[in-house]
Design goal:
It holds the Pfam family ECH_1. By secondary structure, this protein is of the alpha/beta class. It is about 45% helix and about 15% strand. It folds into two domains: about 1-220, 2-enoyl-CoA Hydratase, Chain A, domain 1, CATH 3.90.226.10; about 220-270, Lyase 2-enoyl-coa Hydratase, Chain  A, domain 2 (Orthogonal Bundle), CATH 1.10.12.10.
Length: about 280
C-alpha cells in the first residue's frame, strides 16, 4: 500500500508496521521545482485524509550526500509575473504563487500524523523550510545547514522565518544565520534548539534513529497522538487560557475513546495493545 503513494520525486515505503518512510528522491540534489513541491504537498494532504492506517512518518532523503539542495532556481521562471506591466496585478499574482508554495511545504505541519525529519549532509535554503514544518527534527552529525536566501537576494518566504523564532530558543543565533546566510553545523543547530537530537554518522544512522522513534510513536493510541499534536500546534499561536479551553473541548470527545480500556486490558494481560485505524479506508488503490 505505501508504495502506491510514491511519485516521480518521492519514494514511500512502510519499513515498520504503521510507519511510512517518505524519501525526497530527485537527483542530483533534491532541488525543488513546481512539480516537486506540488507532489510533496499533495502527498501529505493525502496521508492527512487517512486513506491508509499510518501513525508516524519519517521524512528523509534517498541521496547519500544531502537532504535538500534548495529550490531549483530555473523554476522561478514559472512565477506569474512575466509580461505583466502593472506592478499591482503582478504583485497579487505573485503573492498567490507564494501562498501555494507555502501551503505545499507546510503540509506536514497541518497533517495530523507526527512527522519526523531525519536529515544528513547538505541542508540548504528550502531544506530548512521543509524541516521547520515537521514535528521532530533529527540530524546526522555530518549535516551542514544554510538559510541561504539572503545570499541570493531575498528573504526566506516559505516557512523558515515564521517557524524558527518560535521553535528555537536562541533568537540571536536565528538572526545571525538568517541575515548572513553563513553555514552552521549540527551542534549549532542543536544549541539553537532547531533539532532535538544529533545522531553520530550519516544517512543510515539518522534514518535508523528516526525510525526507532517512529515505531514507539506508532505503538501509542492514535487517538491520543493525534490529539497531542493538535493541542501542541494550537498552543503555539494561542494563550495558555485559550489552549486550556481548546484542550477541554477536544478531550471532552477524545476521552470517550475505546483506546483507553484497550490499553488497560493489555496492561493487565501484559501484552501490546492493538488499536483500530483512525478511520475506515476510503482508498480505491
Amino acid at each position: 500500500m505505501a508504495s502506491t503513494f510514491s511519485t516521480n520525486n518521492l519514494l514511500v515505503s512502510e519499513p515498520i508496521p504503521y510507519v511510512y518512510h517518505v524519501q525526497l528522491s530527485k537527483k542530483p540534489v533534491n532541488a525543488f521545482d513546481l512539480q516537486f513541491w506540488t507532489e510533496y504537498g499533495q502527498l501529505f494532504d493525502r496521508l492527512s485524509r487517512r486513506e491508509t492506517d499510518v501513525r508516524a512518518i519519517v521524512l528523509s532523503s534517498s541521496i547519500p550526500k544531502l537532504f535538500c539542495g534548495g529550490i531549483d532556481l530555473s523554476s522561478l521562471s514559472s512565477a506569474p509575473t512575466s509580461g505583466e506591466a502593472d506592478g499591482a496585478r503582478s504583485g497579487v499574482a505573485l503573492a498567490q504563487f507564494i501562498r501555494e508554495f507555502q501551503s505545499s511545504i507546510g503540509a506536514p505541519a497541518r497533517c495530523p500524523i507526527p512527522v519526523i525529519a531525519a536529515v544528513h549532509g547538505l541542508v540548504l535554503g528550502l531544506g530548512i523550510d521543509i524541516m521547520c514544518a515537521c514535528d521532530i527534527r533529527y540530524s546526522a552529525s555530518n549535516a551542514s545547514f544554510c538559510i541561504k536566501e539572503t545570499e541570493v537576494g531575498l528573504a526566506a518566504d516559505i516557512g523558515t522565518l515564521a517557524f524558527l523564532p518560535k521553535v528555537c530558543g536562541n533568537l540571536s543565533l536565528v538572526r545571525e544565520y538568517a541575515y548572513s546566510s553563513l553555514p552552521f553545523d549540527a551542534k549549532t543547530a542543536e544549541r539553537m534548539g532547531f533539532i532535538s537530537r544529533t545522531v553520530e554518522g550519516g544517512m543510515e544512522e539518522v534514518v535508523g534513529a528516526a525510525l526507532k522513534l517512529a515505531e514507539v510513536i506508532a505503538s501509542r493510541s492514535p487517538v491520543a497522538v493525534n490529539g497531542t499534536k493538535q493541542i501542541i500546534s494550537h498552543a503555539i499561536d494561542h494563550s495558555i487560557r485559550d489552549n486550556l479551553e481548546y484542550t477541554a473541548v477536544w478531550n471532552s470527545v477524545a476521552l470517550q475513546t475505546n483506546d483507553m480500556p484497550i490499553i488497560f486490558a493489555a496492561m493487565k494481560e501484559k501484552k501490546k495493545p492493538e488499536f483500530r485505524p483512525m478511520r475506515k479506508s476510503t482508498s480505491k488503490l
